Amino acid sequence: MSQFNHIDINTIWDNSFFEQGEYLADKEIERFRQFCILFYWYFFNLILNTLNVKLTRSCQENRN
Q1: Which of 18, 22, 35, 43 shows a CA-CA span of 20 to 30 A to 29?
Q2: Domain span at residue 14?
């Protein structure tokens, strides 16, 4: 029974985790992907905000 548990633990470990280097590289890729998403989201909102301000100003000028 203890031998079965030992094999089972190794199988779970092999299936759940990469080797240390690959696992760290995978985390770096994920971190980079999240950074890119945040970066583009920031600039997307910046552009939308700029357009919104310009539209609001032009509407106010047309009203006056």
Answers
A1: 43
A2: 2-63
Query: In a structure prediction context, what are the per-residue pLDDT tens digits for the chain, which is 64 residues long?
Result: 455 555 555 555 555 555 566 677 788 888 899 999 999 999 999 999 999 988 888 888 887 6
- Number of domains forming the structure of the chain: 1
Cα Dmax for the chain: 86
Helix residue spans in the chain (DSSP H): 2-16, 20-63
How far from the centroid of its chain's Cα atoms is residue 23's Cα? 17
As a whole number of Å, the end-to-end CA separation of the chain is 86
Helix (H) or strand (E) holding 18: none
Q: Which residue has the tokens 């470990």?
A: 13
